[in-house]
Design goal:
Length: 155
């Protein structure tokens, strides 16, 4: 939404309340991307990483089904769930859904969808991996100090 126009710049206000100051020169000489000019629909996305042993063939349709039960999520286009990539910690999924009224806010819809996905994962016993990193200390002097710090009664 255009919030203000003056001779030097235009202030644009997004649906989340963020204001962008755009020099008018950019509006005249460059491309303007307007995601809501002809269509107010907005795609919301959430990502999650699940364990490598998860059964994607049954889980992805279940995720789509729970997203369809969120009040403001549109039937068409339908919610979608994809395997984005394999990460060191697990399988990265993207869940996308569309709403027709972004001016009413997006956070509540995304939160409700995330809570329903969380409940589904819990019910299905799907594990959400915790990132694990191993730290190796190459300097033996530091290793000795750590041993003293963690050994009861050591000085």
């Amino acid at each position: 939404k255009v919030a203000r126009i003056n001779t030097r710049y235009t202030v644009l206000r997004s649906t989340d309340g963020t204001e962008s100051v755009v020099p008018n020169e950019m509006l005249v000489s460059g491309a303007v991307i307007n995601s809501s000019y002809t269509d107010r629909k907005t795609r919301l996305v959430t990502e999650l990483t699940i364990g490598f042993d998860s059964k994607l063939d049954t889980l992805l349709p279940q995720i789509v089904a729970v997203c369809k039960t969120v009040a403001r999520v549109m039937d068409e286009p339908s919610p979608e769930a994809f395997l984005l990539r394999f990460t060191p910690d697990g399988l990265l999924l993207e869940v996308g859904m569309w709403i027709a009224d972004p001016d009413k806010g997006k956070g509540d819809v995304l939160s409700e969808a995330n809570l329903k996905i969380w409940s589904l994962l819990q019910a299905e016993g799907v594990k959400l991996p915790h990132a694990t990193r191993e730290l190796r200390i190459a300097d033996p002097r530091i290793g000795g100090l750590l041993d003293k710090a963690t050994t009861p009664g050591a000085k």
